[in-house]
Design goal:
It comes from Streptomyces fragilis. Pfam families: DAGK_cat, YegS_C. Keywords: ATP-binding, Kinase, Lipid biosynthesis, Lipid metabolism, Magnesium, Metal-binding, Nucleotide-binding, Phospholipid biosynthesis, Phospholipid metabolism, Transferase. Belongs to the diacylglycerol/lipid kinase family. The protein is an alpha+beta fold. The chain folds into two domains: 118 residues, Rossmann fold; 154 residues, Tumour Suppressor Smad4 (Sandwich). It has eight helices and 15 strands. Strands 5, 6, 7, 8, 9, 10, 11, 12, 13, 14 and 15 form an eleven-stranded antiparallel beta sheet that branches. Strands 2-1-3-4 form a four-stranded parallel beta sheet, sandwiched between helices. Helix 3 links the parallel strand 3 and strand 4. The longest helix is centred in the N-terminal third of the chain and has 19 residues. The protein is globular and about 60 Å long. The protein starts with a strand and ends with a strand.
Length: 297
Amino acid sequence: MTSEIVLFVNPTAGRGRGAQAAQPAASAFRDAGFSVRTIVGLDADDALDRAREAVAGGTGALVAVGGDGLVHLALQAVAGTDTPLGVVAVGTGNDFAGALGLPLRDPAAAARRIAGALKESRLTAIDLGRVNGRWFGTVIATGFDSRVNDRGNRMRLPVGRFRYDLAIVAELAAFKPLPYRLTLDGGGTRDVEATLVAVGNGSSYGGGMRICPGADLRDGLFDVTVVGACGRTTLLKVFPRVYRGTHVDHPVVTTHRASRIELMAPGLTAYVDGERLGPLPITAECVPGAVRVAGAA
C-alpha cells in the first residue's frame, strides 16, 4: 500500500469544523509516517471528480473529513474499488461513522485510528446500498420525514435546526398516511397505507435517530421499517422513541429484511444519507462487502 493518503475535505461540515479538523488530522497522519494530500472541490461535482481521480491514481486511502453528506460523496468514488475509506467524522450528523464505532468530533483520534489500521492492513469490508446508480451507507428516507426535508429545504428562514422544527410542525398540520407499494426481494407486492418507510443499511439517520435499530452493515440485508397509518397523536407518541430504537415495538410499526426492495408512492421524494435522491419509484439493492473501511471497531 502506498504511503500517500488523500484527505477529502468539506470545509463547511459541522459549521466550519471540517476545515478546522483537516489540520490536526493531517498532522496525525504525518506523525504516523504517511504523506498527505488534501482535495477540496469547487462544488460537489468537482469534488467527486477530484476524489475519483485520486482513487484512480492509486492513493493508499481516501479519508473523508466531514459529515454524512461528504461520506456519501466519498462512497461514490471508493465503492467497488480496492481503495480503503477512512472517516474523520466532524459533521452535524455522523451516523455512518457512529455505526462503525469510529471516533466522533475528535479528528486527531480518528486519524490515529485510521493510520494504525492502514499500517496493519486492518480493513473491514461492509455492505453498501445502491439505488438509481448511487451508493449509500446509512438510510433511505421516504414519507413524513422526507416531506419535512423537502419543506425545510424550500424555507429560507429561519436558519439552522429551527427551520426543520418549523417544517415538522407544518407537515404535522397537513399530515395524512400515504399509499405505498413495496416489493421485497422480488416476492409478493404489498400495498400499505404508511406514515413513512425507511430502508436501512445502517441503523440511524438524522444524527442518531435509530429508525432501523436492527440494521447490520455486514449481514448483506437491509432492515426496512414501516410506520403504518396512524393519526397525529400516535405519531407524536411514536416518533420520539426513534432515538432509542424502541419505536419498533409499537403495534403501528412493522419491520422486514430484504436484499432488494422496490418502493412506489405518489408525490414522494427519497433521501439517502441525508442527501436528496429524487422522486419515487426507486429500487434499492444491498451489495455485500462493497467498500473496505479503515479503523472500524
